[in-house]
């Protein structure tokens, strides 16, 4: 397994299969690439199934044991089942989707080897959902969640981006997962440096405080120092990587890391909050492959892209170079100035001053 200069092993990859999407979500950053979405028809720059599988075989050589397929909307790829089926047998396969194409395809995806799925759902109200996603597919998403559960993909994680337009819908979403077997909720902190509209950002600590009061049990995950809130549970959950457990009355119980299987029942709410969490980037273990064949070591950066090429030899070289040049974003690439605001660490600024870390254009000179 390859390790970067900050001691972070790379054990997972995220592979964007396309930047096409049938939604137009107001917060979308398209895997950190910006608004590059094109027509619904397949595009010439999308990686072929053969090239994707070849890359995954190389990643497996380096000890990578998990892949998450993303987009755009990955299910717009008609060869998705083939890609999953041809992924290395001992590599865990998961996917993030908006869920609209899961009805009718979920059983085939499971047969092909899909093990877990995250489904984007930002509200329980059809009108609000339509405003957020610029689509009228709310009912279809609900059907997709049910199809995933019926196909045996529980626990299904619902992804909800937390920002001003969605904050008011959090209680309904929490109630929903607490009342529905097989569902969990992942609340994702809004990152305006990727999606714009800084006025939409909210203090994620407010959400933590609300959940702390609401939860029956609270876990702290070792990875990324994430908090998990269990709502509606009568017994403490068994968490595979939990290192501490707090009761809702504020008392904290010390506990050895549990050894049982991760709980798959209802009522788990997890917050993904990298901005004010110094442990998050310090424990990142993934690299990303864009839909058009570029490796990047960080979601937030596009100034470190490297093409994977066509051959396994070129893929190995790109993978090694990407890992060698990985830098924790918050706390290293981005540091606080004297006013406490985030600023780019001059150590990582391009010496010629002609590259924007958020810009996806003009990337070939760096990638090659």
Textual characterization of the structure:
- Residues 234-264 and 360-368 have low confidence and may be disordered.
- This protein has helices at 49-61, 80-86, 106-112, 126-133, 138-150, 164-167, 170-179, 192-195, 204-214, 278-282, 312-324, 364-367, and strands spanning 12-16, 66-70, 92-97, 116-120, 156-162, 183-189, 217-221, 227-230, 242-247, 252-254, 268-272, 286-289, 294-296, 306-307, 334-336, 342-344.
- It has a 14-stranded mixed β-sheet with strand order 10-9-7-8-11-6-5-4-3-2-1-12-13-14.
- The protein has 368 residues and is α/β, with parallel strands linked by helices.
- Helix 2 runs parallel beside helix 3.
- It is globular, with a radius of gyration of 20 Å.
Task: Chart the SSEs and their pairings.
Elements: E1 12-16, H1 49-61, E2 66-70, H2 80-86, E3 92-97, H3 106-112, E4 116-120, H4 126-133, H5 138-150, E5 156-162, H6 164-167, H7 170-179, E6 183-189, H8 192-195, H9 204-214, E7 217-221, E8 227-230, E9 242-247, E10 252-254, E11 268-272, H10 278-282, E12 286-289, E13 294-296, E14 306-307, H11 312-324, E15 334-336, E16 342-344, H12 364-367
Parallel strand pairs: 1-2, 1-12, 2-3, 3-4, 4-5, 5-6, 6-11
Antiparallel strand pairs: 7-8, 7-9, 8-11, 9-10, 12-13, 13-14, 15-16
């Amino acid at each position: 397994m390859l390790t970067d200069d900050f001691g972070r092993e790379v054990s997972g990859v995220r592979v964007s299969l396309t930047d096409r999407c049938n939604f137009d979500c107001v917060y979308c950053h398209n895997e950190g690439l910006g608004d590059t979405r094109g027509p619904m028809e397949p595009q010439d720059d999308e990686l072929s199934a053969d090239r994707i599988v070849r890359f995954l075989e190389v990643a497996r050589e380096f000890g990578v044991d998990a892949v998450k397929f993303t987009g755009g909307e990955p299910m717009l790829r008609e060869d998705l089942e083939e890609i999953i089926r041809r992924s290395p047998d001992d590599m865990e396969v998961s996917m993030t989707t908006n869920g609209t194409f899961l009805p009718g395809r979920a059983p085939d995806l499971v047969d092909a080897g899909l093990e877990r799925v995250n489904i984007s759902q930002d509200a329980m109200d059809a009108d609000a959902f339509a405003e957020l996603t610029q689509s009228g597919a709310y009912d279809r998403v609900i059907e997709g969640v049910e199809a995933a559960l019926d196909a045996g993909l529980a626990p299904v994680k619902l992804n909800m981006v937390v920002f001003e337009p969605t904050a008011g819908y959090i209680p309904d979403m929490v109630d929903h997962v607490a009342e529905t077997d097989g569902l969990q909720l992942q609340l994702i902190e809004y990152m305006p440096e990727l999606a714009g509209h800084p006025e939409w950002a909210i203090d994620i600590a407010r959400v933590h405080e609300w959940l702390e009061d609401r939860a029956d049990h609270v876990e702290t995950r070792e990875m990324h120092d994430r908090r998990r809130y269990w709502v509606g549970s009568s017994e403490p959950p068994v968490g595979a990587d939990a290192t501490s457990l707090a009761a809702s009355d504020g008392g904290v119980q010390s506990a050895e890391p549990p050894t049982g299987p991760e709980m798959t029942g209802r009522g788990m709410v997890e917050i993904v909050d990298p901005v004010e969490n110094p442990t998050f980037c310090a424990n990142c273990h993934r690299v990303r492959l864009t839909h058009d064949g570029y490796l990047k070591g960080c979601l937030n950066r596009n100034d470190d892209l490297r093409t994977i090429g066509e051959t396994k030899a070129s893929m190995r070289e790109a993978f090694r170079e990407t890992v060698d040049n990985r830098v924790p974003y918050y706390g290293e690439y981005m540091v606080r100035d004297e006013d406490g605001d985030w600023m780019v660490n001059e150590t990582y600024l391009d010496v010629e001053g002609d590259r924007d870390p958020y810009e996806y254009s003009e990337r070939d000179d760096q990638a090659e």
